[in-house]
Amino acid sequence: MSACAGFISESLQESWRMQYIPEAMVYMAVAYERLGKCEKAEGELKGALTRYPGYAPVWENLGELLEKLKGPGMLMSTIDAMLHTNPSNAAVLNAACRIRATKGEQLDAALADCDEALRLKPGDADALDSRALARFRKGNFADAITDANSALAANPKLAGSLYLRGLAKLKSGDAPGGNADVTAAQAIDPKTAAAYAAYGVTP
Question: Is the sign of the CA dihedral 102, 151, 19, 46 positive or negative?
Fold first, then answer.
């Protein structure tokens, strides 16, 4: 915590690397939470939102903390509040889509969030990647493959899209194509399979 506090103070005083302040505030809140100081963690995150309302990880961490404190549903409610505060921010809409998709919750809303993100920023690889995940989780493997293809056309090194396309191919009965994509994704980023497994997305 002292390192985060020192960095934040120095950055504000010297106008240096200020883009990392919201991330440091999230780390500070995580440290408070791990020490069992949940009220402090909540206060740190709410303070971060006052300064940086468009920084999605603050909202996500706050929602997860509130869910631990108050029960199910708080994360999705917090994501709704994030969108209400940032209604025309493509990056925030993509983040909302991604969070819903990784949690496997409110998948229709996730698709709507990604659709709006892509309306504001057509062809965005990250939004296409997120929508591919939402479609995969709904069992719409053909459209997940289409979105993954589009994401990879924009960014061929996007390991997540390549891995997800592989899984969608496997679910669709294309074992050779699926296994090839999974292997290629792991070559780009060996942590890809573990990251998706943490969401409950596995071959």
Answer: negative
